[in-house]
Amino acid sequence: MGLGRSTRTRVALLLVALAAAAVHLLARDLSATLLTLVVGAAAVLLAGSASATAAKMPLETVVDRGPGIDDLLDALDEPVVVTAGSRVVRANRAARALLGEHILGEDVRLAIRHPAAAERLMQFGTVNDDRPVELVGLGSRDQHWDMRVRDAGDGRRMIHLADRTGSRAADRIRVDFVANASHELRTPLASLLGFIETLREGAGDEPATRARFLKVMDDEARRMERLVGDLMSLSRIEAEKFRSPDTAVDLADLIDEVRAELAAADDQRGGDLLLAMELPAIVTGDRVQLSQLLHNIVGNAMKYGRPDTPVTVTVAAAGETMIALTVTDEGEGISPEHLPRLTERFYRVDPGRSRAIGGTGLGLAIVKHIVERHRGRLTIASEPGSGTTVTVLLPATQTPTLSSSRNENATGV
Fold this sequence. Notes:
The protein folds into four domains: 5-62; 69-163, Beta-Lactamase, CATH 3.30.450; 171-239, Orthogonal Bundle (Helix Hairpins), CATH 1.10.287.130; 247-412, Histidine kinase-like ATPase, C-terminal domain (Heat Shock Protein 90), CATH 3.30.565. The chain has 14 helices and 13 strands. It has helices spanning 5-27, 30-56, 59-62, 69-74, 93-99, 108-111, 115-121, 165-200, 207-239, 251-265, 267-270, 287-304, 351-356, 363-373, and strands at 80-84, 87-91, 133-136, 144-153, 156-163, 247-250, 273-277, 282-285, 311-318, 322-328, 377-382, 388-395, 408-412. It has a six-stranded mixed beta sheet with strand order 11-12-10-9-7-13, covered by helices on one side. Helix 1 (5-27) packs antiparallel against helix 2 (30-56), helix 8 (165-200) runs antiparallel to helix 9 (207-239) and helix 10 packs across helix 12. The chain is extended and about 100 Å long.
């Protein structure tokens, strides 16, 4: 059995007196002793008074009841509907935004107008089936929701809608990626196996025929090599996307290095590369990945731009903290309906032309992931007949200032 309130107070005052005596013995200071005694006694008496007052207060006054049920439901990000019988009696903010403000008081089967939901919503009483009902097209055509119904007692039910649009899209991308990668690898592999079998049967006895077959086999093997290399790069970049790069990279030196490599690899278009530097550009990044980014976007401009037209690489300040890298070609351009999908894996505007010039369909997907890892931004602008402009914003290591800039007017390689 615990001590009574008066007994606890007396014990506390005795402890205060002992503490005051100890202060007097140690410090030999009467004022300090009196201060300890007075303050300690006051604290004990005030605590006892507050405790007695709280004991006399009604329970609902002492306990903070917090927000109401409607406030709690509105705090949830996902739609929640509460029904009594077949009528909607509560709907949180997310539910009203999805289904409409009018749903309160309405029949739940009219509030959630979806054929797949009707059967479950007609089951009144305790619902033992915990499996979610998938609702496709609720809200908008591409949205996917999982609906769960829980019995809340007293004829009430709680209906929870969980947005699964993102996970369904990720699943679709993964399935499409595996299918596309398998197709892209199977095509050159089938070609290689066919030519090997033909050579084995004696068709390669003629030197010209053998040389032609070996040339095709070499091209297909290198195509597979590029594809496997791009797949490995994409996987590596995705694995590192949460680790921000922290190395200072001189973008001007890197661009000079990349354009020299591209010019050497393509003699016909090497002279079309132009560079316009408006300022020294030191960015925070991964040099290897930024080199790959430049190879991909400048290489694409060289491949798809018209021969003997310039491919211009421009570096300029973008605000106080970013550097803008822009690559512009004067090719045939891209129709507006293709622009949103250019960074999808294996998406091609012209599949036949892309494969003919050695494209794997992963170049811009790799660029997108590199930009995301660098906490930058990628934009692609194009009009049919007017060429394409790719702009990449990268974080500057130092705030770019035009006062310390150098200006290299457009000069050929």
